[in-house]
Each structure stands twice: as structure tokens, then as C-alpha cells.
Amino acid sequence: MMEKAQSDCPYPGCFFCVMKEANPSKRRASVLKFFRELPSQDDDGQVLPISGLWNTAMAHPNDPEFINLGIFECMSALIWKGLKNRRWLSHDQNIYIPYYAAHIIGSYTMNMEEFAERAVRAGVIPPLVELLRGRLTWVEQRVAVRALGHLATYPSTFPAVADHGEVLELAIQLASSSLEIVYSHFYQFVDRRLGYHCDLLTRGMGGVEMESRKAEEWASQLQCWSLQLINCFAFKSEFLHDICKADFLVKLPGMWGGLVNENSPAGVGLLRTICQSKLGRGHVANIPGVVEALCNIARSSDDWQYMAVDCLFWLVQDSNTCHKVIDRVASTLIDLADISMLGDYKKLGDTIVTMLQECMQQHANSRNSISTHTKEQIDELLSSKQSLKLEKNMPKGDLHIKQAAALVVKLEGNSLFSSGNIAGAAAKYSEALALCPMKSKKERVVLYSNRAQCYLLLQQPLAAISDATRALCLHSPLNRHAKSLWRRAQAYDMLGLAKESLLDAILFINECSQSNDPDLSLKQNKVPDYAERLVKKQMRAAWLFREAALKHGGIHCEGEASDAFGQEADDSEWETASESDAENDATGEADDETEWKKDGHQENLYEKS
Fold this sequence. Notes:
Structural class: mainly alpha
Largest sheet: none
Number of helices: 33
Distance between the termini: 60 Å
Low-confidence stretches: 1-6, 557-591, 593-609
Number of domains: 3
Strand content: under 5%
Helix content: 55-70%
Shape: elongated
């Protein structure tokens, strides 16, 4: 292979010994020779230097030394060798080499466009595309789509990726089927798992349970990295017709990184890119279910909430799609109108008000008119904002009178609720909201949240979600009012929206763990039983492999809905004040009243982040 670098090393041409060479010139010459000769060698132990290079690429992806010495040419040749020479691939530990080679290419092209250009000139794309086809296994597909996604990110190298016309189609297929592939080829049958897959997943540090957890994480990455590659194509209008197929777009809102890959915007990130173009917005507006799913994400406590809001904004601001979507998105945008900052938006609520007002004016005399119900909702929003302006010039005494009147009506609602008159209590909370000053945000949080509880008990989950969302938007910090999170989690559960319910339930538990309120704080650091039950239920329902498991017989549905939450799906908010089912329902309400004392200046007990 190479001259012996160290006299005491038993392996001629040992790469690790070469790297210890003190003379930089000699080391570079030896490494250059190593990269050139490695693909033609059939010696045992080749995986060792490749795994070493993998570690180096992960730790120092911006280091140009190996780039200049031919590492891309070497990795490309090794992948081809694995694809064409199955005898060599099955010998010793060579089965690992194509995986490591593709991973090394992806790491070195992750940050530097110059490196990506060198990789393209070295011919890495054709062998990566072959891996993407599934010529080996899903493990190699994962690192191939990662590398191609990095290459497609840069303007100078995207055309080289796009020249392989099948890349986009393969990525779409992989995004749609990746979870099923990993489940059926690895997760489902423990005794059929390939040994090298298990080793790569756990690095020899875990058993079956660790393998399964890592497989879920890798499956999510396979899907999310496929979506990232598609996203690069979505910025080019000539590829949108291929991307915007109804059967694919309708799946995108449901593609998320899960709890194991929460840093990826996944499906909603791709929808956001699609909605930036007129052509893309046209497709999104016309496909049933996509806009509604974006509304759910926009209302949720998802980290990518702002991306869904972007999509809704662009759809409403486009005159070609506004009339198609306004009746579906208006209620969501109105619920969010009290948010001040979200993502890059500094005054989100003002933007929503202005946009809806312009939409009303544009459609005043149009054939594509807005429904009467939507007009009433928008008029109510505009009226509330006008009231807020008037309050700025109102004497403090008058504001206190309004606030006191609202408190009296709220207490009447509490009394009706305690006596079991839930509809009457909801009406009183509505009356109190009409009286309560718009600037009294803490008080309005309580009223919206309490009315949401009434709607829950009245089996009106949509209304409960709307009110809980308004409470969460008014609250500071945003989306952190514990009781509203719990109520909305229950409402989402009633609608079968497992992911949204799960996120709210987890945030509720988090808020309880940090709360100073004795009724909300976790007793002895123990998660309340009712919250634990809901989380477990939604973890099963939102499990990444759920659909694949149902399809392949890995889940039998008996008792799933009942034993997870059972009769306690309608547990009232008042139970959130205590683990005991026997607590008086009014207990939680009495706690809420503390926010009304001292002219609203008492510290909000639920404000801890």
C-alpha cells in the first residue's frame, strides 16, 4: 500500500502512523498516495482508516487538508466498489465502507461551497444517486440523501444534482415511504436485523432497546433529510409541478421530526417554501385538508408555528388564493391576533388586523365574497382593536369600573359552573370578556381559559381550542399558560389530533414543574396521573412508526383508546389543580381570582417560563 511509516508498526502503510509523521510534506505525500491506492486494495482492515476519516470529517468538516489530497475521489471510488463488487463488500468488515464514505462526503460538504464544488468535480454525485436508489440498504440511503441535500443547497452545485433527473422523484418517494421502509426492514423483526446496522446505530453501546430508539431517530432523519433535498428543488419553479402532487402535499403537514428530531421543520418547512411562489400557493389552496392542517400547526405550540403562519399570510395576501382560503383561515388568524412577537414578526397581531381588513375591502364588491360568518368574525376583531385604542384615552377610574364589573360577572360564572350550569357559565364568561378592558391581559387570559373549559365539557372542542389559543397568545411568555395548555391538549385529543395534544400536554407538565403555584406544582416531582395518561396515549398515537406498524400488523388496536385515557378524557381543568379526582371543582377557579386582585398588578403565578 505504502512505505512503512513507523518501524514498530506491524501494518505496512498504516494510515494512523502516516498521520503521526512530523514532517508535513512527507505526511501530505503519504496521505495523497493512500487516497489514490486505497480503492484498489483488497487488504483486511480497510474499515479502520475509513472510520478514522469519518471521525475527522465529523469533528473538522471545514479543514481543507484531505480535500486537497483527494478524499472525495477516494470515497467516490469506494462507493462504486461496494456497488459493483459484492464479493469484496461481504468480505471482512467492508460492508461498513460505503456508509462511511457517503457520510464523509456529506460532512465535508455541509458548510463549505468550495468543498462542494470539489466534490462534484470528483464525481461523487453518480454513486450517491445509486445509493439513493436503494442499491444497498436504507442505512446507506440515509447518508446519501444527506450528502445530496448538502450539495443541492449551494447555487453552484445544485445544477449538477438536478441534472440527475431521478433525484427529485427518488427523494419524494423516500420522504413518503422512509418510515415504512425502516419499520419493515429493521424495526419490526428483531431477529432479522442486520448486524452492521445494529453496530452503526448503537456503536456497540446498547442492546435491542437502544437499537429500536436509534432506528426511530434515523428513520425520522431519513424522512427529514429527504424533505430538505426536495426543499432545494422547491425554490425553482420548474420543479414545482413534480413536487405539488396532491397525494404528496396532503401528507406534508403530518411529516414532522417527532420528539427524536425536533430540530427539523420537516413537512411544514417544505410547505413554507412552496407557498412562497404563486404556483405553489395555487396548489396548496386547491388541495383539501392542507390549509386546515396548516391552521392546526399555526395555532399549536409547535416550534415551527411561525412557518405555518407564514404560509397562511401568503395565501391570504395572494389575490388568486385569498377567496379560496379566507373562510378556512380567518378564525385561526383572529385567534392569533394578540401575539406581539413570533419568529421574525415584531407586531404579528397588527399585521393580522391590517391584512384581514384589506381582505375585507378587496372582496367588498367581488363575486368571490367572504362568508357572512367570516365577516362577523373580522368585524369583531376590528371592533376590539378599536376599543383598545379608545382605552388609551379613557380615565383610569372608568377602566377600574369596567374591570370591577367584569369581575362581578366572572364570579357569577364561577358560581354557575360550580352548580353544574356549564352553558350558563360560558355565557357569563362571554359577558365578562365584553366588559373587561382589552389592556387587562391577565384577566382576559383567565376568562378565555375558563370559557375554554366550559366548551370542553359542552363537547365543543373547536371552540375550546379557539379560546385556549387566545389565552395562550395573550399570556406572557407566549404559549406558556399551564391551564390553557391542558385544556387545549384535551380538546385536541377529542378531535384526534395526537401530535398537537402531545405537545401541549408535555408543555403543561413542564410548566407545572416550574410553577410556584401549590395547586399546579408537581407534588414530590411526580407527574400527575391524568397528564401522564394523556401523554402516553398520544405518544402511541403520534408514534412515527404507527401507520407502518398498522399496515404490517405490528399494532393491534384493541383497547388502545379506552385504556389510555378512558373516562378521564373529559377531566375538567379543575383537576389540574390537584391529583385528586375528589377535589372541589371550584378550587382551581378560586386560584384564578388572585390575578384580579390589586388592579391586576399581582404577579401572575403561571407566568414562569
